[in-house]
Amino acid sequence: MDGRNVQVKLFTISASDNGELQRELNSFLTSHRILEIEQKFCENEKGGWWSFCIRYVGENERVKFPVSQQGFTKKDKPDYKDVLSQQEYDLFLLLKAARKEISVGDGVLPYNVFTDAELVEIIRLEDKSEKNISAINGIGEKRAQKYWKKVAEKSKEIDVKRKEEEKAKFQESVKEDQTK
Question: Which of 81, 88, 120, 165 lies at a CB distance of 3.0 to 4.6 Å from 67, suitable for a disulfide?
Fold first, then answer.
């Protein structure tokens, strides 16, 4: 886990709290990606209170979990939207769409091209050369040679098509606004 993204927030709630501080704590918990909560009840002659130490992912940041080391089972598959930054997630969706088209064309299942975890590892590579991709655990030289170039080219095609569609929709909405 990349510690630079982790933030800490402390809450102290008196045992005699009227609920206001509890609502503040609950609001914080529901609006952040919580990694860990440590809680302790303390007391002295003036009364008791709960102390909460909360570790969470900083605003607009995601913790980067090394996917190949997570050991997810098929039943416990991660939500990559929570694992990846928005830019990485957009690329992930683009590569998945390319993978699907290639798998249909080649008559194989999508995960035979690349698994989701392998796509995430590819996204995180600085140099997306065939050699580096083949070094990812589970891919190997043959699969990298067979599919990486196809996936890269298909994802570019899909991206261009999506941008053209977005441009056409925008132009259409401008025309509609002008006719009003």
Answer: 120
Residue with tokens 């607009």: 60
Side chain identity, residue 149: K
* Whole-number Å distance between alpha carbons of 134 and 56: 34
pLDDT digit string (tens) for 101-141?
888 888 888 888 998 889 988 888 888 888 888 888 888 88
Q: How many residues does the chain have?
A: 180
- Separation CA 90–CA 104 (nearest Å): 22
What is the rounded average pLDDT of the residues 10-30? Answer: 87
Which tokens sit at 178?
Answer: 């002008």
CB atoms within 10 A of CB 117: 20
Q: Which amino acid is at 81?
A: K
What is the arithmetic mean of pLDDT over 141-158?
87
E strand or H helix that includes residue 175: helix 149-179
- Contact by Cβ (8 Å): 132, 163: no
Instruction: Please give the C-alpha separations between residue 128 and each of 69, 132, 144, in angstroms, as whole numbers.
Output: 20, 6, 11
The amino acid at residue 152 is: A
At 8 the three-state DSSP class reads strand
